[in-house]
Amino acid sequence: MNIKSFVLVSVAALALANCSTPQKTVAQPEKFQLRTFQDSISYAMGISSGENLREMPGGIFNLAVFEKGLKESFKDSLAIELDEAASRKLFQKLNDTMQKIEKIKREEQIAATRAEGTAFLEENAKKPGVVTTESGLQYEVLREGNGEKPGPGDRVKVNYEGKLLDGTVFDSSYKRGEPLVFGVSQVINGWTEGLQLMSIGSKYRFYIPQDLAYGERGAGKDIKPYATLIFDVELLEVLK
Known about the structure:
Layout: H1 3-20, H2 37-54, H3 63-75, H4 84-124, E1 130-132, E2 138-143, E3 155-163, E4 169-172, H5 173-176, E5 180-183, H6 189-195, E6 203-208, E7 229-239
Antiparallel strand pairs: 1-2, 2-6, 3-4, 3-5, 3-7, 6-7
Keywords: Isomerase, Rotamase, Signal
Family: Belongs to the FKBP-type PPIase family.
GO molecular function: isomerase activity
């Protein structure tokens, strides 16, 4: 018998053996379902608790011990009793630890944000068409107008779009479909300086260092402390 015939016979024998051998039925686990209000609210509370506990840094929280304490508490049969004073000391220590960790994390984020802004501005200053003023403001002329320039006491009407260095748009009058009117001296320093460089009809791109933007306080949920910002600004009108 040659190799080809042997393979065919072997395959046929294997197929017959499989047909003659009873197949075991493996019970499938029942799909998890929320059947009642009690199920749903319990599951929701579990998710909420889990999300909060997941935020705790590694090394502080032990899920297995937490489950043990939770189950024993429900049974009112605790392996180890913790009096109120002992519990209070534990939670105070946890609070102090979390605050220290958050402080370190915040300082690291601030250092990274400042370093990112500095590096960006250093490279950006080398690009053709980018002008750096004495204050550190950088700007680029996208379109030059020929109207009057506003002074510090004027009000202006502008369209604009603000971005973070990663390209995230955090504010845009274009998206709202409505220009903004404000006093030249009523905005961040980078805008106050930049607007007075523009003629009506101009469109500039401002690269604003953190110290001419929102500095250590940041703004809203998107602008972190010490963030460098980019604005495209279109000067539509100067209002006396």
